[in-house]
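Suppose a classmate hands you a notebook page containing two proteins, each written out with its sequence and a corresponding row of structure tokens. How would you begin to make sense of it? This section walks through that situation. The first entry is reproduced here exactly as it would appear on such a page.
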Amino acid sequence: MLKVDQIKVPVTDSHENVKQAVSKKLKIKTSDINDFSVIKRSVDARKKPDLYFVYSVSVTLDKALEKKLLQRFSKDNNIHEYLPKTYAMPQAPAFKSRPIVIGAGPAGLFAAYIFALNNLNPIVFERGKAVDDRTADILKFWETGVLDTTSNVQFGEGGAGTFSDGKLNTLVNDKLGRNKFVLETFVKFGANSNILYDYKPHIGTDVLKTVIKNMRNEIISLGGEFHFNCPVEDFIIENNRVSGVIADNKRYLSDSIVLAIGHSARDTFKKLHEQGFYMEAKDFAVGFRIEHPQSMISHSMYGEKYDLLEPAPYKLATNLENKRGVYSFCMCPGGYVVNSSSEENRLVVNGMSYSKRDSSNANSAIVVSVGAREFDKADPLSGIAYQRSIESKAFELCNGLIPQQLYGDFKENRLTSSYGEFSSVTKGNTGFGLLSEIFSQEINQSIIDAMGTFGTKIKGFDRDDAILSGVESRTSSPVRITRDESFQSNYPGLYPCGEGAGYAGGITSAAMDGIKVAEAVIANNMN
């Protein structure tokens, strides 16, 4: 099998045109190609208004022809022998006790899935509700403002990423094929197959909910067990190791407990700290959601023929003289700003897109790195206290409504009275407030300084009527629960995992960490 990179074709060309371009590159007939598939596809908009897809493809030919072509193109860096990454499923022995998984986000679900595929009958505890019931609670909250603190955008089956954009891009090095396995699993359970090759794949909140439900049902069919509305209340520690949990006033004993609680399980972080589990405060980032017309973003990224492509994403970052990093986070093309609160009298926003990404606005978080200048990192829970302080301020600004301000008014510390040339698209009610009152002057100025830089990269990004919404505070976990080389905490038997434990930063990386931890559990039970 050969891998051929840098196959460029106009975005309007069909799949067959890609195959023809490959045969032309290799100087062979299309009939010589026994098998052909796309490995990766990205957009090249450097010669606007002309737009191109750039493909990497795998090609299977007769062995003799493959050998001949490798010799002919030995100096062409875009033609290689190709050995696709195939995930090697671990083979588990019989366990003494069923593994327990705490949390049904991507890390927990994939850990449970690996266990289920090995006939280990995992038990999954999730403090929130199953995804359909959870969705009903979230819609009610967006419409009425009545918050269920156990069933919301942060808590429930699928985790916080379910109500985002279903973005699946990751920077994690994937030498063992875990990323490919995650994507293939999502496709198996209902995602579009284009996530297997798109450069910035996404599923969309609407489709992701179905994928998660199908995955849960498969785990159950393989012997797994789910307990919703069932937070873990305590950890059983005996002989200096974790031997089980208490949930729903019952004791569940296990030698292997995966802790995949997500970044907002603040009560669990506190419980773990009180029981002597090692953890540390870590840096994260805070800021605001910003909205622009999606047409403006797409035109800037793709040129006048932007409507030939899906709504354009962007990624922006800069380092300031004050040693702050400022960057865009969780960019949602054709998306919505959503009220993502999980605690009474505190307010958090996030971004969300459906699979079609068809709202009129683009949004992303513009966030500033925070750490020792904001909270005492000697206290593992100090980052949580800082998050809560800014979320309380955001709630108070508009009495629980999402506080918004036009960017031009934010710069002048002036209350906004109306939108400019476009309006906000949100899930949850909004009001106008002075967002500058949430953060320190240094953080506010960092956002302003970065916006000036971003405006030179995307024309109109720093326009005065860009809409800011506050507050984005849950970009990543504020703590890291330490684990050793065997992936266990200082009390053996507990395996911190995923984004909440500080080892991932999105759906895909969390899922991959769940797989990695499940592998460690299996390996440790072989000893």
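The notebook's second entry, a different protein, reads as follows.
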Amino acid sequence: MTTAGALAQGYEMAQSVAKDLGKRPKASDLPQAEDRPYEIKPFWDVGGKGRAWLDFQNDVTTKDVKQAAQENFRSVEHMKRYTTQGMATDQGKNSNVTALAVLADATGRGIPETGTTTFRPPYVPVAMAALGAGGHGKGFAPERFLTSDRATRALNAPMIEVGLWFRPSYFPKDGETHWRQACDREVSMVRTAVGVCDVSTLGKIDIQGPDAAAFLDLLYTNLFAFLKVGRVRYGLMLREDGHVMDDGTCARLGERHYLMTTTTAAASQVVRHMDFVHQALRPDLDVSFTSVTEHWAQFAVAGPQARALLNGILDRKISDKTMPYMGCGAVQLGGIAGRLFRISFSGEHAYELAVPARYGDSLFRLLLTRADALGGGPYGMEALNVLRLEKGFITHAEIHGRTTAFDIGMGRMISDKKDCIGKSMAARPGLNGPERDQLVGLRPVGAVKQIIPGAHLFEPDATPIRQNDQGYVTSMCYSPTIKSIIAQAFLCDGRNRMGQTVKMVEHLSGVTTLCEVCNPVFFDPEGGRLRG
């Protein structure tokens, strides 16, 4: 414990190591150093005018402990209850020893005579094996099921996991031997008749309060304060670093009442973000919000016959006047209160009908019966992906955490009339401009017709190496509407390269494809079908 002792011990060890290596080290004198006996004295309380904190979780000071002793709460258990020291989640892990020493000094006793308090887990570390005892098989991750799960499985739909939810991939029919056959049929069905898709997994956040509009204006890049009651608006949300966090719609149900929808994958992330913004950035706003995702079963009804289907089950018929595009409102089905939103993720005339979750199974079966009579039926995730790609809509394949509003062509959605989370950071040099990878569409134009997500893009004559990289593919599908493979990709200065040819190279499989750069909106770019 002294400098001289440390030098002596080090010298001895060095001599021993040298001898073990077969050397003959010469003796040397050690430098003179302090060699006083090691003595420590208890010094628990520095004193002074300021507060001397003991328990940071419960805000207990040394003064509180001394006050307990003065009022004759001399037992450690009494002091603990008088001051709440050691009663927080750490059970005194960071304060017990010092607090007991201060109490000992205040009562003129030693620490052994003063005693210790009873502490509880996790004061002693808990083994990971104990925490993860059930973490295997189905216990490893929760499983979330739609209200339509039984009806969906009865139709032999293969299920895929999306954000812990199990959703139907496609709905095979007799004679179909490949998933593409079912997918192509479902896409054509939505384009020509009507399709039904369970979209209950979308995050649904109920927002209420006098300052709800101001809160939404802070969260979203675009304005929501002037959104009229009974209307829906698409919104884009940024992280604090200026990159896109999520997108979705927000409906104004009342003067102080909104319903936000998020993507399935980002629902919990968005709620955490809202909690942080409200508690840390704007605690002054009078607003409350809660996740109601599991409270409502929600179904997309899309296609030219969508309105006819709904008018066959709603208590009151709807029209373009009563339910215009991007409108919303309360409806009833056989006396059951529900909500109707005229929004579309397919590019078709479409609605989303929501009812309390306990009616979800019954409504899904009813919708399928009505759809079948109109030449339609259910469609799954595969068809949903094709429909959105044909229309140029994005998912988290495109807003994957490294893209900005500029990259996806939505830079103008960042309003110049207000501030919002991430606005200043999104304007940083390097997050805008032609050097950025920008969202484009791709179609194969050569002999090879494959486009593979994750593959990289190069100039047609360039060597496919990292230094020549021009971008990458995010999503692809075969479009039965366009009769072609189509894809979305990020390409350097992509919006100024429409009509050019690029080379897609997928190094793992060795596939090379020449692609035409085109508008990511392949189908109905004017939007007449979803508005009609």
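A careful reader of the second entry would note: The chain has 15 helices and 22 strands.
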